[in-house]
Every structure is written in structure tokens, then in C-alpha cells.
Design a protein that fits this description.
The structure is a single chain. With 208 residues, this protein is of the alpha/beta class. The protein has one domain: Rossmann fold (3-Layer(aba) Sandwich). It is built from 7 helices and 7 strands, in the order H-H-E-H-E-H-E-E-H-E-H-H-E-E. Strands 3-2-1-4-5-7-6 form a 7-stranded mixed sheet, sandwiched between helices. Helix 1 packs parallel to helix 4.
Length: 208
């Protein structure tokens, strides 16, 4: 079966060339994220893809480390940075559970379109919590494929066997996602849907 890194390496060029389907919702997410960041912050983004969001957010903070476990995503992201990315932005190949994420503490950990793809969500959330300083924030936006979207399960199964879908996709509801965060020791600060279908739940959670 195709591994997660193999899948994302194979689709990296197509992913990089794709356009944002809902620009208004994306810009709103950037605005809400910036509202929780400060100019002196040290920020880690996990699952950054080709660094498009990192490039937009890095000028708002002191240091920004963008990570992804797919080598091709990192290669494309580094090429973008070489063409004139923010000087405080660094890109590394790393992901939850691989022991390669940089040492904290961070003021914020960002995870966009990632949490539903992790094979061990509780362990990943615990790792993210450990990377934050007390009072630090986990800021995430997650597709929640609950309700009628469950009908996609058999379709995704077939696609996965053919190597055309990620090996792990969680069908989370907003409530289940937020319960996982509180179970990992986070306190919810903000939660909202940013006008998308399926729902993409924007959640800001704090390490006490």
C-alpha cells in the first residue's frame, strides 16, 4: 500500500499548481490566524505543503519554521523561498511522530488541513502540546467529513488501494475534533466554520 509520504510526493507538483477553491474563506482563515500571533512569536507549522500559507504568515512573526514530511513538498517550497520568500522563514522535512520536528518551545503550532490525515491523532496532539510553551496556541483548520460525507468511505477505500488517496483519512465531526483536543490537555479559545463545504473547522486551542 502507498505510504503517506509516497502519496504526497507523487501529487506534489499537481498540488503546487492547484488554485484555492474558496479564496474568501482562505483569506478569513489567514486573518483570524494573524489575530492570535504576535511580532515576537516563534511559530512552527506542521504539514505546510509547498509553503504557500507559511509565506503569507511569516512576516507577522519573529521566526517561522514550516515542516512537511513529503520530500517533494519541501523541495517545491524551498524553491519558492529561493525566489524571494520571507527571510525569517525556514523549511524542514519533518512530521508528527518521526522525531525530526524542531525543538520547542513555540508560541504557536499551526496545522492546516492536516489533523484528519494523521493515523494517530491523540499522539500527534500530545506531541504538538509538548512543543508549545505554557499559554502557547495550537491553531488549526480541519476538513470535517461527518454526516453525509460518510458515504465517501467506500470510494476512498478503492482510491486508496489504487494509490489515488492518502492512506489515512479520518471522518471527524467538529465535536469529535474538539473533544480530541481537550482530551490532549488543550483549552479551546476559538472555534468556527469558515463558510466551506465540507465544513472546515477553524480551532484555536491553548496549552494551559
Amino acid at each position: 500500500m502507498t505510504t503517506a509520504s509516497q502519496f504526497w510526493n507523487r501529487v506534489a507538483e499537481r498540488y503546487a499548481a492547484s488554485t484555492i477553491s474558496n479564496v474568501e474563506a482562505y483569506e478569513h482563515t489567514l486573518t483570524r490566524t494573524r489575530a492570535h500571533l504576535g511580532p515576537g512569536d516563534r511559530v512552527l507549522e506542521i504539514g505546510c505543503g509547498t509553503a504557500s500559507t507559511a509565506i503569507r504568515l511569516a512576516p507577522s512573526v519573529a521566526t517561522y519554521i514550516a515542516t512537511d514530511y513529503a520530500a517533494e513538498m519541501v523541495r517545491i517550497g524551498r524553491e519558492k523561498l529561493a525566489r524571494g520568500g520571507p527571510p525569517n522563514l525556514q523549511m524542514l522535512r519533518a512530521g508528527p511522530g518521526d522525531g525530526a520536528l524542531p525543538d520547542g518551545p513555540f508560541d504557536a503550532v499551526l496545522a492546516f488541513s492536516l489533523l484528519h490525515l494523521l493515523p494517530d491523532l491523540p499522539a500527534a496532539l500530545a506531541e504538538m502540546r509538548g512543543l508549545l510553551r505554557p499559554g502557547g496556541l495550537l491553531i488549526s483548520k480541519t476538513p470535517c467529513l461527518s454526516g453525509p460525507w460518510h458515504a465517501l468511505r467506500p470510494v476512498l477505500g478503492v482510491m486508496r488501494l489504487a494509490g489515488k488517496a492518502p492512506p489515512s483519512v479520518r471522518f471527524l465531526s467538529p465535536a469529535r475534533l474538539e473533544r480530541a483536543m481537550t482530551a490532549a490537555g488543550f483549552v479551546l479559545v476559538e472555534a468556527a466554520d469558515h463558510n466551506t463545504r465540507p465544513v472546515r473547522r477553524f480551532v484555536v486551542a491553548q496549552r494551559p
